[in-house]
Automatic annotation (TrEMBL):
Record's keyword terms, sorted: Membrane, Transmembrane, Transmembrane helix
Domain of life from the UniProt record: Bacteria
This protein's record includes keyword Transmembrane helix: yes
Protein name in the entry: O-antigen polymerase
Membrane-spanning segments: 12-32, 38-60, 72-95, 101-118, 130-148, 182-202, 209-224, 230-248, 260-278, 347-372, 384-401, 407-424
Keyword check for Transmembrane helix: yes
C-alpha cells in the first residue's frame, strides 16, 4: 500500500512539473518578447499565479522545499531595507506606491516559489533553451519588422497578426539623420537577449550552424534599432565575456586557438550582411557617435537625451530633501514624464535614489552583489562555469541598459534576476546533495 501511494505521489508530481514547465515557458517567453504590451499584463499575472499554485502543490506532494537559505536571507534583507521607503510611500499616498510594492516586494517573493521548482536537470536545461529561442526571436522578428516598415519586404496577414500580438511600435521605423530607429517592445529585452546570445556563442555555441545565421540576424536587428544603449551593451559583450573568463580562470579552456580563429571568421558574414544595410540606410560614423554620446548630454529638451539630463537634475535636487529613506516608493518629482505612470522616469537609477533614498539603493546593491559573487564562485569552482559567465555578461549589460529606461521598474522586468538565481539555487542543491550523500 505504501509503495502504491509513493508511486501515485511521484506520478502526480511529474504531471504537475510538466504543467508548470509549459506555463512557465509561456510566461517567460511573453515577459522577454512582449515586456511592455499592456494587453498581456493580466495574462502574465495569471500565469505567474498559476505557476505559484502548481509549485505549492508540488511542495505538498514532495513535502520539501528546494531553496537556498542564502537566497531567502538576501530577499529578506532586501525587503527589510525597503520597508522605510515603502512606509513613506504609504503614509504620503504616493501615486505609484501600490505598483512599486508589487514590483519590489511582492513579486520577488513570488520568484522564490518559482526558483525552488528548478531542481531537476530537465527544467534547468529548458530555461537555457528558452532564453536562446528568445534571442533567435528577437533577431528574426526585429529584422523582418524593420525591413517591412522600410519597404524592403512586403507585409502579409500572418506577420501583421504576430506584430499586433507583440505590440507594434507607435512610431514604426524611420530612416533619417544618418541612422535608423524603430520602436518595438521586444527591444526592451534586447539588452539581455543579444548579449546572452553573444556570450553563449563565444562559450561554444558557434558549433551549431543555426547560431551563425541567428547571430547575423541579431546583429542586424541591433544595428537597425537605433538604440544607443543597445549598441553600447552589444559592443562590450565580447569584452565582458573575455574579461569574466579571465576573472574566473577559464580563459584557456574557452578561448583556444581554434575558437579564436572561428570567432575571427564570424566577423566576415556579419560585415557581409551589415555593410550593405549601412550603405543603403546612409548610416555614418558621425551620426552613430552623436547617438551614442547624447543620452545624457543633450541640452535640447525636446530630445530624449535632453529630457534625461533634465530628469537627472530634478531628481538629484529633490532627493537631497530626504537622502536616507527617500521621498517614498512611487513618489513623483516636480518633473512629470508620463501622465499615465508619473512615478516612472527614463533616468531609472536616479529615480530609485529619489524615491527610495540611500537605504533602498544600498539594498539593491547588496542584492546584485550577492548574485555576482555567487556567479563568480560557480564560474571559478564549478562545472557550470560557461553558464555562469553567460549570465554575468547578460545581467551586467542589462543593468547598464536599464540606466536609460525604467525596464526594472515593472513586475515583468525582474525576470533577468530569475535566471542567475535559478543557477545559484541549483548549485546550492548540488552541494547539499553531495554533502548528504
Amino acid at each position: 500500500m505504501l509503495i502504491k501511494r509513493v508511486a501515485v505521489s511521484n506520478s502526480a508530481s511529474i504531471a504537475l512539473k510538466s504543467c508548470f514547465l509549459i506555463l512557465f515557458s509561456v510566461l517567460i517567453f511573453l515577459n522577454i518578447n512582449a515586456p511592455t504590451v499592456f494587453s498581456l499584463l493580466y495574462v502574465k499575472a495569471a500565469l505567474f499565479l498559476l505557476c505559484c499554485f502548481i509549485s505549492v502543490l508540488v511542495y505538498f506532494s514532495e513535502r520539501s522545499v528546494h531553496l537556498s537559505r542564502d537566497i531567502v536571507i538576501v530577499h529578506l534583507i532586501f525587503t527589510i531595507l525597503l520597508t522605510p521607503s515603502a512606509f513613506m510611500g504609504i503614509v504620503g499616498s504616493t501615486p505609484g506606491i501600490s505598483n512599486q510594492i508589487q514590483v519590489y516586494i511582492f513579486w520577488p517573493f513570488v520568484h522564490l516559489m518559482l526558483i525552488a521548482m528548478f531542481k531537476d536537470a530537465k527544467l534547468n536545461d529548458s530555461i537555457i533553451k528558452l532564453q536562446l529561442i528568445s534571442s533567435y526571436f528577437m533577431g528574426v522578428f526585429g529584422t523582418l519588422y524593420v525591413f517591412v516598415e522600410l519597404g524592403f519586404l512586403n507585409s502579409n496577414a500572418i506577420f501583421d497578426s504576430i506584430l499586433g500580438f507583440f505590440g507594434r511600435g507607435d512610431e514604426g521605423a524611420t530612416s533619417n539623420s544618418g541612422y535608423v530607429e524603430f520602436n518595438l517592445p521586444i527591444l526592451t529585452s534586447a539588452g539581455y537577449t543579444a548579449p546572452f546570445f553573444i556570450a553563449y556563442f563565444l562559450m561554444g555555441g558557434y558549433k551549431r550552424p543555426i547560431n551563425w545565421i541567428m547571430g547575423i540576424l541579431i546583429i542586424v536587428a541591433v544595428i537597425l534599432s537605433g538604440r544607443r544603449a543597445l549598441w553600447l551593451v552589444v559592443a562590450i559583450s565580447p569584452i565582458l565575456t573575455i574579461f569574466s573568463s579571465i576573472l574566473v580562470g577559464k580563459f584557456n579552456k574557452i578561448f583556444t586557438l581554434r575558437s579564436i580563429f572561428i570567432y575571427s571568421a564570424a566577423i566576415v558574414p556579419v560585415l557581409y550582411v551589415s555593410l550593405p544595410i549601412v550603405n543603403k540606410l546612409e548610416l555614418n560614423s558621425a551620426s552613430i557617435y552623436q547617438q551614442l554620446t547624447s543620452s545624457y548630454t543633450e541640452s535640447d529638451l525636446t530630445t530624449s537625451g535632453g529630457i534625461r539630463k533634465q530628469q537627472v537634475n530634478v531628481l538629484i535636487t529633490e532627493w537631497q530633501d530626504s537622502p536616507i529613506i527617500g521621498n517614498g516608493l512611487g513618489a513623483v518629482a516636480s518633473l512629470v514624464r508620463s501622465d499615465g505612470v508619473p512615478w516612472s522616469y527614463e533616468a531609472y537609477y536616479y529615480a530609485l535614489l529619489f524615491q527610495g533614498g540611500l537605504i533602498t539603493f544600498f539594498a539593491a546593491v547588496i542584492f546584485i552583489c550577492f548574485i555576482f559573487q555567487r556567479l563568480y564562485i560557480i564560474g571559478r569552482y564549478r562545472g557550470d562555469y560557461k553558464l555562469a559567465i553567460t549570465y554575468f555578461v547578460s545581467l551586467t549589460t542589462y543593468l547598464l541598459f536599464g540606466a536609460t529606461n525604467p525596464y526594472l521598474a515593472r513586475f515583468d522586468g525582474f525576470w533577468v534576476f530569475l535566471f542567475p538565481l535559478i543557477l545559484i539555487n541549483k548549485d546550492y542543491l548540488t552541494k547539499r546533495n553531495k554533502y548528504n550523500g
